[in-house]
């Protein structure tokens, strides 16, 4: 019979073998690139504040839209252009507000997950998923079978559950027009610079989709 010490040593060796296997990158799956155009409905939990977001990703036209419905609250539009300009606005029946921001970076590229660290498989939201992490910033879960994203988690704790994922869906051009009151004032766009900084973290609160203000600055 093996002594407790021997068992412990064996467990130790198994553990390191496991670590070695799980960190060797040879046959690790890589995340599917995002389709060039898609529409996705996301349910997002931000520390208990719930929101439903319509995400319209449109790489060929260099634009990305988060249309955010806060639970029993306002509907907010976060329209992002690849030239770095973002418009954050509300429409009727809500007060007319608009914030124009300028970022050093464009929208996410379809291959923005390249270079993510593979962490193995896990059941999330009842789907068996491959899991990756990128720059301690996002944890990304993709269905093993269909390769569709299931969920992602930002370092801030914000969790997005992917409810629909319509590859090839495009929102008509007419909907990508920020309202006139976004253009009424002559004040320059506030510039948002690269790299995480306290102002960027503040900004994350403003950019509720969570993409440009935080993710983009890391991925560019
Ligand atoms: C949202 O996340 C919080 C933790 O931040 C959790 O306590 C709560 O149950 C979640 N709500 C839903 C509806 O998932
Ligand atoms: C970026 O493109 C949008 C949409 O065409 C435009 O409204 C905005 O003024 C542009 N921003 C800059 C800095 O050129
Ligand atoms: C909308 O504007 C009115 C009038 O300025 C103000 O009283 C009200 O608080 C505003 N509502 C919101 C949600 O900001």
From TrEMBL:
Source organism, top-level taxon: Eukaryota
An example Gene Ontology molecular-function term: transferase activity
Cleaved signal peptide residues: 1-24
UniProt KW keywords: Signal, Transferase
Descriptive protein name: Transferring glycosyl group transferase
Organism from which the protein derives: Medicago truncatula
Name of encoding gene: 25501973
């Amino acid at each position: 019979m093996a002594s407790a010490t021997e068992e412990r040593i064996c467990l130790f060796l198994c553990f390191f073998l496991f670590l070695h296997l799980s960190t060797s990158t040879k046959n690790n799956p890589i995340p599917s690139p995002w389709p060039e155009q898609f529409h996705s409905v996301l349910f997002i939990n931000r520390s208990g504040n719930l929101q439903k977001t319509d995400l319209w990703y449109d790489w060929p036209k260099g634009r990305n839209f988060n249309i955010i419905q806060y639970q029993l609250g306002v509907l907010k539009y976060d329209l992002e252009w690849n030239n770095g300009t973002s418009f954050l606005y509300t429409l009727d029946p809500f007060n007319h507000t608009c914030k124009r921001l300028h970022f050093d970076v464009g929208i996410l590229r379809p291959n923005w997950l390249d270079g993510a660290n593979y962490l193995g498989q896990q059941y999330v939201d009842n789907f068996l998923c491959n899991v990756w992490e990128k720059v301690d910033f996002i944890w990304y879960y993709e269905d093993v079978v269909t390769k569709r994203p299931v969920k992602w988690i930002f370092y801030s704790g914000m969790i997005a559950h992917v409810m629909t994922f319509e590859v090839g869906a495009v929102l008509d051009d007419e909907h990508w027009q920020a309202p006139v009151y976004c253009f009424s004032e002559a004040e320059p766009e506030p510039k948002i610079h690269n790299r995480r900084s306290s102002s960027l973290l503040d900004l994350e609160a403003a950019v509720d989709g969570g993409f440009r203000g935080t993710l983009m600055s890391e991925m560019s």
